[in-house]
Amino acid sequence: MAELLKGAPIAKELYGDFLKRSDDFKERGIYPKLRIIIASDEPAIETYSSMIVKNCEKAGILSDTKNLSVGSADTDILGLISESNNDGSVHGIIVMLPLWKQLDEKKILAAISPEKDIDGVNPYNAGKTVLGQDSFTPNTAQACKDIILRSGIEFSGKHVVIIGRSNIVGKPLANMLLQKGVDATVTVCHSRTRNLKEICRTADILVAAIGSPKFITKEFTNPGQVIVDVGMNEIELPDGTVKLVGDVDFDNVKDSVKAITPVPGGVSPLTHTALLENLFKAVKNQINEQSVQ
User: Fold this and answer.
1) What CATH number did the domain enclosing 204 receive?
2) Phi, psi (degrees; rounded to nearest 5) at 153
3) Comparing C-alpha atoms, which of 89, 222, 113, 211 is closest to residue 161?
4) Rounded CA separation 115/221 (Å)
5) Hey, which of 31, 53, 108, 165 has its CA 20 to 30 A from 223?
6) Hey, which residues does 186 pair with through a beta bridge?
7) Which pLDDT tens digit goes with each residue over 162-186?
8) Does 189 fall in a domain?
9) Same domain, 94 and 174
10) Which domain holds residue 164?
């Protein structure tokens, strides 16, 4: 059976370090704080935001959640973002996606101050990621990179195939892995890619980020391959219960590859730690800016 690359043990170590960093800031009178903005009624968002709040507590970080009403307009959420940008007690802002359909997502994400954009969704930070400059990177993309490196696997010289071209995983991850010092050879596949199975079989590292349950089977794999499964899909079983599965058919693939991230428990714990790592980075940057002024 393939080696399981689990994020939870890595995350546990990181939370100990986070608590220490929080305490160090608090001794200086600085209380790291995250603001979560929700303009949606999707149950999954409520669940995910609650997890963020709990993880903030574990790390000694303050957080608050602002929920907008169903009929909110762009001006409502833009006003809240502006207020948060100018609030010195708020160090990081995350807008939960997706938004209600009447809202202009691009305009809203672009309104987040780049200095507080700890999910890396502002075009300014996205552009810096492309150029290989220091920036806030999207947390799920960062988590994919982290779980590979922290498992002792190198990217240099490896062929990484990413299935999915979203702005929060596929595109940023591809740009992160192309940078000098990481040195992967990257192929990005999507819904119009021809010969997908053949391309995937050439991968040293295969990243599945398409939101399609159990899409990847052993026909996509090779025996030396490492698979990073980003998918988080709910499926209903014959008995009516709901099960969380990835984009990879785990049972079908587990004996055909070298290593794989399970779902749940693989990438997801490091998505949360990547968010908090970015928050601490934002706090430090804002302190440095204030000392220069």
Assistant:
1) 3.40.50.720
2) -105, 130
3) 222
4) 40
5) 165
6) 160
7) 999 999 999 999 999 999 999 999 9
8) yes
9) no
10) 139-268
